[in-house]
Amino acid sequence: MTAGTIIERFAHTPLTNMLGWRLVKGEPGSNRVTFGFQAKPEFRNAAGFIQIGMLSAMVDSTIAALVLIASEGKFFASTLNLAMNFPAPALPGPLVGEGNILQMGATIAFVEARLLDAEGSVLVTASATARLTSTDYLKTQESPRSKTKV
User: Could you give all domains of the chain from N- to C-terminal order, each with its CATH number?
Assistant: First the structure.
């Protein structure tokens, strides 16, 4: 299965479509991915910058897809913790999301991600801890929540 096939099967949603999300680089089993996003003028706050919630959705989408691709479509990432820094404001236009898995075990992944503008300026840095949830439940249509023990 290719990275594009994995994304089409599991990750395209109305939200990712709204964000202009597209795979730029990533291979199944790889610990790195790159995605493109489109920060639309409608995403601006009163100051004219892209609202942090929209940037957070881009980062979270990058992290989730990274785990899907790295696990060759076997796991979704359920974010347990997401720490973000915003060193520069984002303006409308194309953005790039990069993700890197630091470590992935049987149930937890440690991930970092960042968003850059078209000139390569870093707009967001993030680190996350994610619970790995099997995609097998899709075969039975049983909710993964019913199998999760806290």
Answer: 3-147 (3.10.129.10)
